[in-house]
Structures are given as structure tokens and as C-alpha cells.
Design goal:
single chain; mainly beta; Neuraminidase; six-stranded antiparallel beta sheet; 1 helix; about 45% strand
Length: about 500
């Protein structure tokens, strides 16, 4: 804690390796609510021992929590559930929302506003500051009625109520860089009129208003990530400090992927303000933009014949898989469902796509192409799992047990039981976004330790102990994202620079 006027920052919790985040004041200013170890805690604002408020639920952590204006109830989020906690017990389920986060009470406690669709946006971990679009929803506390007050094809985050409850402030990139917008709302929480843009070029990541509405604090985030590469180590492990930069620019790059033949490096970037698909001819080609539309397009995958690119996009308000010919033909929509279908990979013969569902507990799905080149309905191959990828011979699928790091397993494409490759309990590490080697003999993955340091490892596809390939031991060049890809005799990954500060501005009412 630090006074707005300046001075020394006062630690409220002890210095440790625990991840403690999302602090919020009680209405009377005497305590600070925060998240840690999957549950909710509070600490005296004058300093002192924290106390538990809500225990960590079984199976999923709490990702948002705030006291009601009278301090008697806590609204909190687990998975897709917005819950209330009062009198030391769970009171009731308020509403089911797709990936809610940053939920905030209205001043009269009749409404709760949440960001929805991108819970990773401010969540500590390897996908912090995720680029995916999101929406702002408002929930009526008495009956759970939910309305959407923003678009769902842009990033809309960090809702904050005005002191009279008539306006919702939020962060959005609907017009380019992240700025602060205000949306007038009715007493029932519905949008009234168009949103007003209040700032230009601010780059805000999150915002909060003072109780009297006269001051607004914001935290801008300046992030730049590019792809770097190393020769595949002949004598591992090696340090990432010797990596060479592949891409340049003031951009954030996610999900790099090298094609099976090692000719192309695929990725998506927000260089133009929206997420778009790119490729680079290896070893030293120039970036080529593959999509050019008004939507965010992610995780491009080039077809084996090089004529099409598959990607997922938010064009319909949720993640769906699309295929675009590179000769300028019409885009095909492969999926259309409430699921969050994402990160598709082509089968080696180009006749099918495998992809995951990002909604817990995940799922592995396969869509096959008909003789007339249209796409059939996706078929579920696995009810739980993430980040699937085809083996080079087309017979197997590798996947992760968890969305942000867990075990790694292999299953036959058509039917058959799973074979566990990486057991976190035995290996003492987590696997993230596995991918196959070109010869099908190894699985590559990244892992992050408790301090957030990354490493790249390989594990035999036939089973065995994981081998350390690359250490990220330079604190000035961290690699946060979970993806790693290998091709053309090199290892490719993203390294990122992040800078952020906290600012306060006065709110002038007109």
C-alpha cells in the first residue's frame, strides 16, 4: 500500500514466493481483500496478519472477489460461476457466465459487473495479458438476470462503477490501443446509448475509481514480445541467452508454430492493433501477413499443401475455427458452437483438423473434410484435455491435461486409452502446450518453475524421462508464453519485455 501523495510503499503481506493478487479495499477502508493459494484472504490496511475469508474450492481456484458495499457479502468467481459468500458460508449461485473475472458491485449492491470471455487478462501466470476479446456483462443480484453492455469482438475489461451507479467505466481496444470508455446504464444494468471514449492512446490495462468518484487510478502496460530462436542443442542444456531475434517490432506475438517441413514459421501478432496471422519463410524471410480483416485471428496453421491457413477467431462472439484459402477464396467456418474451439492443427494428409476446447475441463475434437471440400460436424475424441497436436504419421494425438500446465498424454486418433507421458507428481514439473518432433520420436514442451523461470524440454514419445534442452536464466529476457516449436534444426519461442506503472487522474464531471 502507498499513499497517493507519495512516500514509501508499505508491505501488507510477508515477502514470500506466494502469488498474492487482485487487492481491493473494504468499504470502511480498514481491510484489504486479496486472492492467494486458490482462496480469498484479507489483511488489515494498517498492517497485521492476514486471515482467510473463503477457502479454496476443490478443483478450481477463485479468480475474482470483492466485498459488497456494506461489507457483509463477498461476490467471488469459480470457473464460470459467480457466487455470493456471507456469514462464513456460500450463500448461493448468482449466475453462470462464460469465463468471468474482475467482478465489481454497483454502489447500491443491486448489480455486479464482470469482464467475460478472457479470464487470463489480469490473472498471474503464463497467459497474463492474453490478447483475446472479451465483453462486459452486468448481473442483477436478486435473480441472476444477465445483460451484455459492450461488444464481444473487442477486448473489454476492468469494469468500474461511477459513484452514482449510472455509468460503467471500462478498458477497451475497440478503437485501437487500450483506452478508457464510459457506458451509461439503466437501473436494471442495460446499456443506454453508445459508449463514450474518454482517453486517447492511454494504454491502460486496468482501472479503479475512488469511492466518491473524483479520482481514477490506472495501470498502463507496455508489452513487446518477439520470436527468438536457437540452434537445436547438440549438447544440452544450453542457455537462452545466446538466442537470435527472428521478428522485430512493437508488437505482442503469441502461438508460434513451425510447419512440419520446416519451411514456414507461423504466428499471430497485434502489430496493426488487431490480432492477425503471419508467416515467415525460414530461415530468414520477411513477415507476410495472411489475414486482413476487422476481427482478431489467432494461432494460424498452414495446411500441408501450403494453400490454406486454419485459425481461430472471435467473429461470432466466441472462439471458432476458420479456414482461409491463400489464393483469395472465401473463408470457411469449421465450427460454430458455444464451446471455445481454439488452436487447430492439420492432419498430415490435410483431410482433418484437431483442436481443443478452452472451457474447463477442455476437450479434444476432430473435424474432417468431406469430398466436396466442406467440413463435417466436429467429433469429440476426448472429454478433457487441451492443446492437441497430430503425430507426423497421423496415428496419434498428444495433449496436455491442464490449460496452463500439467501432465502430458498421448492417445490414438480413432480409439483407445491414453498413455501418460509426463506425470507431474513423478517428474516434479509441469508440461505446457506439447508439440511433436518432425520424426515423431520426441515431444517438446515448455515448463515454468515456482519463480516463473521457463525451460524447454523433450520427452521420448515412447516414454521415458524428460530432458532439459534450454534454460531461460537471463532475467532481462524472460519467456512467459507456454508455446515452443521446433523446425529447420532450430528451436523457436517468444521472449517478452513488460513495463507498467500506476497513475492517478482527477475525474472532472460536466
Amino acid at each position: 500500500m502507498r499513499q497517493v501523495a507519495g512516500g514509501r510503499a508499505i508491505p501488507l503481506t510477508s515477502d514470500s514466493t506466494e502469488v498474492e493478487w487482485e487487492p481491493y479495499w473494504s468499504a470502511d477502508g480498514t481491510r484489504i481483500l486479496f486472492l492467494a493459494r486458490g482462496g480469498v484472504f484479507s489483511a488489515p490496511s494498517s498492517g497485521g496478519d492476514p486471515r482467510p475469508e473463503i477457502p479454496a474450492p476443490a478443483g478450481a481456484p477463485i479468480v475474482s472477489a470483492e466485498w459488497s458495499p456494506d461489507g457483509k457479502t463477498i461476490a467471488y468467481v469459480v470457473d464460470d460461476s459467480l457466487m455470493l459468500w456471507a456469514n462464513q458460508r456460500r450463500e448461493r449461485l448468482v449466475a453462470t457466465i462464460q469465463k468471468p473475472a474482475l467482478c465489481r458491485w454497483s454502489p447500491d449492491a443491486k448489480l455486479i459487473a464482470c469482464a467475460s470471455g478472457n479470464a487470463f487478462y489480469l490473472q498471474p501466470g503464463i497467459v497474463f495479458s492474453n490478447l483475446s476479446p472479451s465483453r462486459i456483462v452486468v448481473v442483477r443480484v436478486k435473480d441472476g438476470a444477465t445483460v451484455t453492455v459492450t461488444d464481444s469482438t473487442s477486448l473489454n475489461q476492468s469494469p468500474a462503477w461511477s459513484s452514482d451507479g449510472r455509468w460503467l467505466y471500462f478498458v477497451s481496444d475497440r478503437d485501437g490501443p487500450r483506452d478508457i470508455f464510459a457506458q451509461r446504464v439503466t437501473s436494471e444494468g442495460r446499456a443506454s446509448g453508445a459508449p463514450l471514449r474518454l482517453t486517447t492512446g492511454l494504454g491502460a490495462q486496468s482501472i479503479a475509481l475512488s469511492a466518491d468518484g473524483t479520482r481514477l487510478t490506472y495501470a498502463p502496460l507496455s508489452a513487446s514480445s518477439n520470436i527468438w530462436s536457437l540452434p537445436f542443442p547438440a549438447h544440452p542444456p544450453v542457455s537462452a541467452a545466446g538466442a537470435e531475434q527472428v521478428t522485430t517490432g512493437d508488437q505482442v506475438i503469441e502461438e508460434p508454430y513451425v510447419t512440419r517441413d520446416g519451411r514456414w514459421l507461423m504466428y499471430h501478432s497485434d502489430l496493426t492493433g488487431k490480432g492477425q496471422a503471419y508467416r515467415i519463410a525460414l530461415p530468414r524471410g520477411a513477415p507476410e501477413r495472411l489475414t486482413n480483416d476487422a476481427y482478431d485471428d489467432y494461432a494460424p496453421a498452414l495446411s500441408p499443401d501450403g494453400r490454406e491457413v486454419a485459425f481461430h477467431s472471435w467473429r461470432g462472439g466466441s472462439r471458432d475455427i476458420f479456414v482461409q484459402p491463400l489464393d483469395g477464396g472465401a473463408v470457411q467456418q469449421v465450427t460454430s458452437s458455444p464451446r471455445q474451439e481454439a488452436v487447430a492443427h492439420w492432419s498430415p494428409d490435410g483431410a482433418a483438423l484437431v483442436f481443443g476446447d478452452l472451457n474447463p475441463p477442455g476437450g479434444v475434437w476432430i473435424a474432417r473434410r468431406r469430398p466436396d471440400k466442406s467440413w463435417g460436424s466436429p467429433v469429440e475424441r476426448l472429454a478433457a484435455g487441451y492443446w492437441p497436436d497430430w503425430s507426423p504419421d497421423g496415428r496419434w494425438l498428444v495433449f496436455s491435461h491442464e490449460l496452463v500446465g500439467g501432465g502430458i498424454g498421448i492417445i490414438p486418433v480413432d480409439s483407445g486409452p491414453e498413455r501418460v507421458l509426463l506425470d507431474p507428481a513423478r517428474a516434479g514439473l509441469l508440461g505446457e502446450v506439447p508439440s511433436w518432433s518432425a520424426d515423431g520420436k520426441s515431444i517438446y514442451f515448455k515448463s515454468h518453475d515456482a519463480a516463473g523461470k521457463a525451460s524447454i524440454r523433450a520427452i521420448p514419445a515412447a516414454g521415458g524421462a524428460p530432458q532439459l534442452l534450454v534454460r531461460f536464466d537471463d532475467p532481462n529476457h524472460p519467456s512467459y508464453r507456454p508455446e515452443v516449436t521446433v523446425g529447420g534444426g532450430r528451436i523457436f519461442f517468444a521472449m517478452e519485455d513488460r513495463q507498467s506503472d500506476v497513475y492517478v487522474m482527477d475525474v472532472v464531471k460536466r
